[in-house]
Amino acid sequence: MIGQKIQLYQVYALVLFLLTYLLNQLDRYMLAITIKPMAQELQFGDKGCLLNGNYTENDIGSTKCNALTENKCVATTYDNGTHKHHVCDWNYNGQGFEYEILAGPVFIVIFTFGGIFIGFAADRYNRKILLASCLIFWSVMTLLTGFVQNYWQLVLLRFGLGFGEAGCTPFVASMLTDIYPTELRGTALGIYNWGIYMGYSMSYALGNIITAADINGQGWRWAFFISGMPGIVLGVLMLITLKEPDRKNASKEAQNAELSANTNNGKCSRLTRILRPFLAPSLIIAVLAGSVRNAAGYVFAYNTQLYFTSIGQTKEQIAKYMGWIPIVGGSLSVAVGGFISDQVVKTRGIYARIAIVIASLLVAVPFAAGTLYLDPPYAFVSQIPTYLFGEMWIGITLAVVVEIIPSNIRTSAVAVYLFIISNIGGNMPLLVPPIQQAFENIGYTKSQSLRGALYILYPGLYVAGAILFIPAMFLMKRDQQNAQNIDVIPMNESDS
Fold first, then answer.
1. Burial 240-277 (b: 16+ CB within 10 A, else e)
2. Contacts of residue 306, Cβ cutoff 8 Å, sequence gap at least 6
3. pLDDT digit string (tens) for 403-420?
4. Most buried of 161, 307, 309, 446 (most Cβ within 10 A)?
5. Angstrom distances, CA of residue 49 to CA of 64, 94, 446
6. SS3 category, 303
7. Are 380 and 313 in contact (CB under 8 A)?
8. Residue 424 — pLDDT band, cuts 50, 70, 90?
9. How far apart are CA 406 and CA 266, in angstroms?
10. Is residue 200 predicted with pLDDT exceeding 80?
11. Lowest mean pLDDT among 159-168, 274-283, 360-369, 429-438
């Protein structure tokens, strides 16, 4: 009976964590879905030749709004046989550095630095309270985004969103590690990572449909109102019903050492000890490889809506496919990847998890390229195997990190891991505008140029990540054996 109660609670806790991550991703990517109408209302970013809102692609036939200058754009006409219609406008298109800065540095810098300090707190204080507080805080930031009137207000709230969301995965990964046994951690982390794809898919469905509904004439603003409110309710529920799990894997001596590390010297010493495991060659290369793969995800996630819009897809068409494909493909991917890696690790060790990552990334490459090469709906269909194979890496690499890191610094180490892969990956979208501009300079249209940039930074980075994971796999076995000899890192010199 006791075992049954524990099992039911494990499921309940995992569901709460899954919903938290869903809202984390929904609130994060709502910007990417609503950026075009937002940029036009707040007037920021690049301008381009866009189809006038009074017409559809079907109305203008083969006429294209792809002029590179304003004069040529507004002069573009469609002749229906009786009258010439000016069908193109020169307007804000949601692209450019001001957008990429919002998507990348403004969010990522505080997200990653905040994650490290929050991770330090989580190794010493109540993780449940901290996680619920972060959830409520970032939900309020999302809600307030619906009220912005200026670009600087958007920057400030995006900054706050990054700080709040920084506490999500470090807290959850640490708590799941204490709630679930070793042989189930990969699966539990995989299910938790369903939240990425559920939230990402919902951002397309909710962002596009709500914006198109134009509630009270406020369009995109209601997408932020509706996505921000559930997190406040969930945060309160978490405070009431979730229990702080015992830190089962940390020794009493290590806990006492942590409590005594209150001086500045102690904190510096602690930081040194947290960073020390990342000097392992296998972990250095694995984190670098994960950063490169993560960069591909950030680049495409923040440019998916813009890309499909640029090739003539409507908001409704994009929502029709992207509202479910990431959920199905991505959720199956991380769950299957976690399950398979849990099975192989029983006989071959955690380094075998990396082999699964390499194989899955290489299988995903042609499908990722197919998304850009094929016309809709086949471009959307190609996303299914891309997600199915290409997203296995997330839960698997996180499982590797939590297993190779000593138990009493695990939350902080996860924060450091996320700091590295998020800073490299999250800022990679900044490369899209200059690469796109380089293609435009040699005569390609904006749509063709965006496609060229995405070829390099989407399937191209899949290949680069897989190549970098190969040496990590061969080094992992040795470093795993070293880690097993150090279950806890001493926090004071006297403990050494």
1. eebeebebebbeeebbebbeebeeeeeeebbeebbeeb
2. 32, 35, 36, 93, 94, 95, 450
3. 777 666 666 777 778 778
4. 161
5. 9, 12, 9
6. coil
7. no
8. confident
9. 18
10. yes
11. 274-283
Q: What is the CATH number of domain 2-46+93-491?
A: 1.20.1250.20
Quick one: which of 186, 273, 221 has its CA closest to 31? 221
- Report cis status (omega within 30 of 0) of the bond before 377: yes
Burial 434-456 (b: 16+ CB within 10 A, else e): ebbeebbeeebbbbbbbbbbbee
Q: Measured between alpha carbons, how far is 64 from 306 in angstroms, rounded to an integer? A: 16
Other Cβ atoms closer than 10 A to 462: 27
| 237 pLDDT tier (thresholds 50, 70, 90) | very high
More confident call, 356 vs 182? 356
Instruction: Using only the alpha carbons of the chain, give its radius of gyration.
Output: 24
Structure tokens that stand for 116 in this block: 């490290």
* DSSP string for 41-106: HHT-S-EEEEE-TT--HHHHTT-----SSHHHHHH-EEE-SS-EEE-EEEEE-S-SHHHHHHHTHH
Residue boundaries of the structural domains of the chain: 2-46+93-491, 50-89
**pTM of the predicted model, to two decimals?**
0.73
Could you tell me which residues come within 8 angstroms of residue 468 by beta carbon, excluding any fewer than 6 positions away? 285, 288, 289, 292
